Amino acid sequence: MTTPGTDGLGASQEPFGPPDTEWVRVSPRLVTLRRLVLVVVVVVAGALLAGLAATVGVWCVVLVVGLSLAAAVWAWLVVGRSVRSWGYAERAEDLVVVRGILYRQLVVVPYGRMQFVDVKAGPLDRRFGLATVQLHTAAAATDANIPGLGPIEAARLRDRLSARGEAQSAGL
Amino acid sequence: MPEGNRRRLHPFTPLLRGWKIFAAVVVVLGRQVYSGVTLGWDLLAIGIAVPIAVAYGFLSWRFTYYEVSAEELHLETGVLFRRSRHLRLDRLQAVDVVRPLVGRALGLAELRLEVAGGSSAEAPLAYLGEAQASALRAELLARAAGIAHDAPEAPETVLFTVPLRHLIQAAIRSSGLIVNSAVFVVLLVVGFGFGQWAAFGVALPTLLVTIPVMARPVISHFEFTVADSPDGLRLRHGLLETRSQTVPPGRVQAVRIIEPWLWRPKGWCKVEVNVAGYAGEGQDKVSVLLPVAPKAQALALLGRVLPDVDLGAPPVNPAPTRARWVDPVAWRFLAAGVDDRYFVAQRGRFQRETDIVPHEKVQSVRLSQGWLQRRLALATLHVDTTPGPVQASAAHRDAAAARALLDQETGLARAARARAAPEQWMRHSSRDREGSID
């Protein structure tokens, strides 16, 4: 829904639209990873609940399995949309990150304000060839992280960001 | 690194740090003697523990020293685990001299150097003699300002002092006290109505708990004095523990003017500030620029912190009428806008708040939208600064207008950063300093 043009508004009128270029979207592998985690959680939780429900009766097991399947399908779709909603744009002086479907957020971080840049990747992330780039400023409220980048892309982005940060560094 | 520049803390330091333990030992022993218990093992344990503690205190003092050079403060601490810390003076955000009650009796003070990013004071020099502490403060500020380190302590002019009666009246007019008094009265009336005299025992504590809450600001802001000097603003306050803060020019990141409901008939307000480095400390102690003052005087003082600020006619526009669906109580009081130097946001029906952020202090700008806001085409703009009591945001703006404001603020902040003053505030040829990241 955050892609511009879907609701007929121009980029300038869409409040969460990209600044002047298109959003760079994150890797679709992140969707696969999150869906995989989701399936594992649903199967384990569903099995536990079904085990509990079996003490009550067969109808209860059917109910539990049905509900968890419905929840899984809903979450499956939400994960896809939520990952597709992440996007970032590198501009001359700042980085813009957008995300979220229910709670949408757009953050503009000037390169000159960056204190440091993190690249994080957990074991599962590495398995899927994914990494998260996180920007930190002197403000704790700055909430700018970009998940689902390829490791090489993430390292390049980090290097670009820190080079620009150094070039444009401003005092507090 | 010449040995000669190394300086030690005051030799009474272990005494001041350890007096509480010492007092506890005396009390325990005293009680035992008083109740006629024989002092066998206790005495032995104390006989071993006390010399160890004394030796540790002495060693810890022996191993701690500091050294000031042109660029930085170097602090060495630790007996077993040595820690050596170098603090860049041009990154200094504030210098506080704190004198705890017992320290005042011994003529000792703690010097706290605040740098951005620390969770507490990064280099507390505890304790120094009082004269030594103020001389060191003057030296550090002179070096941080980029002038000769042996320059005399900058002269100051007192701008404002808060009378005690204002502090007390402000505390009495706090909404917490009013609410708790009302609860007290209701409990009493209900209790007596049912003939339950025990209600008094239940009601009294609700009143008693408010006393420390009320008294704390009076004690910590006692004789609050604001003075101006070339080193920056100086704030002095405190009844038991006194604190003398120096905030150099350009170190104030954001300002909030608070007008509580019950203060408004008096025309009073409170001013809080964000200063990088004060994060994580008792905000009530360090982040208050004015605990209570008539608004006109507060605005006059603000003019010194934020030049050209005009709060007679703040550059704000109200939020759209449909904001009433998300904020039915105070939507009428939501307003925000920018001029060429500041971002200003206002809110609050009962407690009015005005946030002011200079464009050159903005760290990042965010736009957020919950699902209800999205249905109403509203969005909230956040202007992030260093941590502190002020979190500036313009809630429930028209979404397209909020995006326009975000783009405008981004541009204004970029321009303001480009012409920002140097960190060494006395040195105006700013570009001789190399860019640096801590």
Would you mind describing this structure in some detail?
The complex is a heterodimer of chains A (172) and B (438). By secondary structure, chain A is of the alpha+beta class. Chain A contains four helices and seven strands, in the order βααββββαββα. Chain A has two domains: 29-82; 87-168, Roll (PH-domain like). In chain A, α1 packs antiparallel against α2. Chain B has 438 residues and is α+β, with helices and mostly antiparallel strands. Chain B has three domains: 3-145, Roll (PH-domain like), CATH 2.30.29; 164-220; 250-418, no CATH class. Helix content of chain B is 35%, strand content 29%. Chain B has helices at residues 13-34, 41-62, 101-106, 130-145, 164-172, 175-193, 199-208, 210-220, 283-286, 295-305, 371-375, 399-418; strands spanning 7-8, 65-68, 72-77, 83-88, 92-99, 108-115, 123-129, 157-161, 225-229, 232-237, 242-247, 252-259, 268-275, 288-294, 317-318, 335-338, 342-347, 352-358, 364-369, 378-384, 392-398. Chain B has a seven-stranded antiparallel β-sheet with strand order 7-6-5-11-10-9-8, with helices on both faces. Chain B has a seven-stranded antiparallel β-sheet with strand order 14-13-12-18-17-16-15, with helices on both faces. The longest helix of chain B has 22 residues, at 13-34. β4 (104-110) of chain A pairs antiparallel with β19 (364-369) of chain B.
